[in-house]
Amino acid sequence: TACAIIAGFLHYLFLACFFWMLVEAVMLFLMVRNLKVVNYFSSRNIKMLHLCAFGYGLPGLVVVISASVQPQGYGMHDICWLNRETGFIWSFLGPVCMIITINSVLLTWTLWVLRQKLCSVSSEVSKLKDTRLLTFKAIAQIFILGCSWVLGIFQIDSMASTMAYLFTIINSLQGAFIFLIHCLLNRQVRDEYRKIITRKTESTSHSQTSGILLTSMQPISKTG
């Protein structure tokens, strides 16, 4: 029973990761599409509550339906995961393959829109630089959107060991790619980092200056 519960939680958490990857792909597409079309429906019009309902609610619905149809599919004799012998594993692989396909199409469409934007962009260096940065971010989204999980499908026969290593290494770096895209390459986040560092530096220098002034005033007060 404990193994089945663990398998159910893993099923839900992995699906939630992939559904949030789909949210990321849609938000990226809307942001880039908004660069080309004026007054286009942008990502800012989507409320966070709706995103959470999609990212956390739909995976729960899939797990509930799967558990209702085949409750014995959770947990095996050698591993706490979905049963592969009865084909129950497709309750996970089915949504995953669908999301990876949608993400690949959206990413290709996003790169196409950016290519058209690069062709029609003006000669301003700053605008061209921003567009190239968006292109780099879009390419890096391949790893964030979970497209690298395709490597897990090719873990068969003689390629299984190599694909397993590539699959583990690349997907383990997904958090690093998220930090790179959404923190280091985000201008607003960098400005906030800069403000915090500047504020701490100013407070440190101010305290040191106050200490020097107090030290220099002590002999004067004694002389007085």
Automatic annotation (TrEMBL):
Keyword check for Methyltransferase: no
Coiled coil, from the record: none
Ranges of residues in domain G-protein coupled receptors family 2 profile: 1-186
Any Pfam family: 7tm_2
Keywords: Calcium, Cell membrane, Disulfide bond, EGF-like domain, Glycoprotein, Membrane, Repeat, Signal, Transmembrane, Transmembrane helix
Source taxon at top rank: Eukaryota
MF terms (GO), sorted A to Z: G protein-coupled receptor activity
Predominant cellular place of this UniProt entry's protein: membrane
Cellular component, GO, one term: plasma membrane
InterPro entries, sorted: GPCR_2-like_7TM, GPCR_2_EMR1-like_rcpt, GPCR_2_secretin-like, GPCR_2_secretin-like_CS
Protein's GO biological process: adenylate cyclase-activating G protein-coupled receptor signaling pathway; cell surface receptor signaling pathway
SUPFAM superfamilies: Family A G protein-coupled receptor-like (SSF81321)
Family: Belongs to the G-protein coupled receptor 2 family. Adhesion G-protein coupled receptor (ADGR) subfamily.
Protein name: G-protein coupled receptors family 2 profile 2 domain-containing protein
Organism field: Myodes glareolus (Bank vole)
